[in-house]
Write a structure and sequence with these properties.
There is one protein chain. The protein is an all-alpha fold. 81% of the residues lie in helices and 0% in strands. The protein is built from 4 helices and no strands. It is globular.
């Protein structure tokens, strides 16, 4: 939810920063917003249902969907380097968890 909200804020900020004559870049950020708003809504509703006591548990399908959504949004919005910066905490979490997993 935090990464999705950050990406949404980034797209909105970029819309205000990009001049009107660069329509292609503005349209790519608008498309990115159109993809992130439903994803953020699904993530917030899943978070609400997953709060204690949990009624729904996140599975592989949601994780694949989230990864695919972030990949598509970063490609469509032309900000793949920024997305890598957003995902660095996830990478650090993975590295921290490796001794427990293997």
């Amino acid at each position: 939810v935090v990464i999705a909200a950050s990406v949404l804020v980034l797209n909105i900020v970029q819309l205000f920063r990009i001049p009107e004559e660069f329509k292609e870049y503005r349209e790519s950020h608008v498309q990115s917003i159109f993809l992130m708003v439903p994803f953020l809504a699904v993530s917030l509703s899943l978070l609400r249902l997953n709060w204690f006591p949990a009624k729904v548990f996140v599975g592989d399908t949601y994780c694949y969907f989230a990864g695919m959504t972030f990949a598509v949004v970063s490609i469509v919005g032309h900000f793949s380097k920024t997305m890598v910066l957003f995902l660095i905490p996830q990478l650090l979490n993975f590295l921290y968890s490796c001794p427990q997993l293997f």
